[in-house]
Amino acid sequence: MGYMQTNTYRKTDGSIGTLEKSYAQIIMEAAKEAEISPYHLAARLKQEQGTGSKPGSTATGEYPGFVGYYNFMNIKASGKKDDEVIRKGLQHAKDKGWTNPEISIKEGAKVLAKDYINEGADTIYLQKFDVDCLGDNTLFTYQYMQNVSVCLTEGRTARNTYIDLGFIENTIEFRIPVYKNMPSIPCREPIAKSIVTQNVKIEGNSVRVRSTASSATNDNIIVELNRGDTLLRIEKANSATNGTYWDKVVLPDGRKGYVASQYLVQIDDITNCNENVITTTGVYLRNGPGTDETAVTLLNAGQQLIRIEKNQYNLNGYIWDRVKLPDGRQGYIAQNYIKLQEANNKFKLENDKLICEPETTVETIKEKNNGKQVTAKNASGEVINSGNIGTGYTVTIDNQTYTVVKMGDINGDGLVKTIDYMKIKNHIMKTDILSGYSLQAADVSKDGNISTIDYMMIKNKIMSIANIEL
After folding, report:
1. Which residues are bridge partners to 77 per DSSP?
2. Would the pTM count as exceeding 0.85?
């Protein structure tokens, strides 16, 4: 957070004061005093004040009428308009004497602990949605804030922090409320316009596809379809126009229009391929084919994808392919910007070592040495006939034995995981020095040094952003 890189603040008399501690130290002390997680506290601060060069108006110390007062946690900051929210929060800070960032953060942490966490609202969800977690038969009495999306945003912040610190594989206890009559699948996140990528079929006959979301006239009819005809749906209406919900669709020939949603039923994905591909440059993933469709996300060069449909649409001078992200999201990318990805399972023999890529398996080695006697053993000396090999394993090809160095697999379990880049981090910080084959597996950049470059390459591999290659 940019504003935490400075240690100056505005006093109540308008002069400039200096904090004697860094914000990191203040957060750690505040968490210790309140007996709460510093990660939760940091995520809450990020949620309340953002990550810019300056915090929000309740934490600058410069808001008119409240110079020198700070409410980093936005305690008691509520209302219908921004000015009302800010003034209520700063009036509370003034009443409590929160005259510098350290006091505000530490006292805010105590409120978070005392009035919420220690009273049963010990998750972000329960702080937002009080479902009688206190056993007092009241609802929403302890609602912390008005932002309905906070569970998602703060949860994501906390998760990313755990990933960066290498704690994501630790045992974590989740408290998940379960309600009666819950839907069988999770509800979608509410957004202003439902952006989708779905195959649908027509239910009905003489169903009209229109160029605009209206049936007021018949001069906007593109085509009539019948029961069983299939389309691609790329927008789903959240509100009705003159009593009708209109969904945006794409016809097989690429023409686009609108159909009353009551005549559409979602079906399984219609695919014509299943190929591993990789982006060749930074490119937008769009909900439908065409440069005018909504960008679902921006992908970096080297992003790994699965292509499930190709050569179906030719629009705006591009052929559009349908792809799937590792997290399940789908969309379209111009074919120019993706290419087939080679299997990440190459290996080479170098003196007494077998150096290989992360997906190399016993099967890969046997296939490349067809007609030869291949025996693989794990670090305990047990013969393995299939599956992953890991750093420290041995592979005997005919009468020559090689020790495996799998790039990125530093702990020797055959996989590239969070624990591997944490070992690099510890090596760089000189808290746990790597040696032998583990040291060689850590040098994924192949520059002869173990550095933050290797750390980031492994992290990108784990996040399916890029591969590690020989």
Report:
1. none
2. no
